[in-house]
Amino acid sequence: MTNNQTQPVPPAFEPNASDVANNPFIESKNPHAEFLPEWYEVPVTWGNYLKLEEWNTKIRILTVPLMGWEYFTEDNKPVRFEYKNKPKETPKIKEWKKLKEFWALVIWNYIKESIQIWQISQSTIKQKIEGLFKNPDWGTPLLYDISINKKWEWLDTKYEIIPSPNGKWAEPVPSIKKAFAEAKIDLTKLFTWENPFWNDK
Predict the structure, then answer these.
(1) How many domains does the structure of the chain reveal?
(2) What is the arithmetic mean of pLDDT over 111-125?
(3) By CB distance 3.0 to 4.6 Å, which of 48, 136, 187, 189 could disulfide with 66?
(4) Cα–Cα distance for residue pair 87/69, rounded to 1 Å
(5) β-bridge pairing 56-61 and 66-72
C-alpha cells in the first residue's frame, strides 16, 4: 500500500435542515435507531509519520536515528536544529514548552503496511531503545522488529518497548527493502522544513 492512501469516497450524504427537524428518531429512546447510512465509514488517511495508538504498534526500524533539537513556537510551528547546533535561545517558544532532543527514524509500520517517519522526543522511549542496543542479547534494533504499547495511567502516558524474538537478527524482508528504496526519504530535510519524502514532491 502507498503512503497517504485513503478509502474510496462513498456517495454524498447531505441531510438538509428539514430532514434533521423531522427525524423521528431524535426523540426516540431506541438505542438501535439509524444514525448514519449503512454504507458510511469514517475516511481513513495513512500519513507519512508514525502516530502511536493506544494499542500494540509493531514496526521495523530501518535507519539509524537522525538526532536534533526541536521546540514549538506560539503558533505551534516546529523549529529544529542539528544536534551539533543546540540553540542557546528559543525565541517565541510556546508557553510551558521547552527545547527537546529528538530522534527521527525511518520505519516500516506493519499495521499500515507502509514506510513512515518516527520522530521521538519522549526520553523514556529513547532510553528503552538505547537499552536494547546496549544489551548483548539484542544489539542494534535494525535487526529485529519491536512493538510499542501505549497506555494511560492516571494523567501520565506510559510506553512499553517489546523486542520480537521472531526473526531476530534478520534483515527486513525484500518487500520492505523495496518500499524503503522507493520512498527515497531524506531525513535531513526536517531541518529545512522541506518534505523528506521524495515521492510526495
Answers:
(1) 1
(2) 93
(3) 187
(4) 8
(5) unpaired
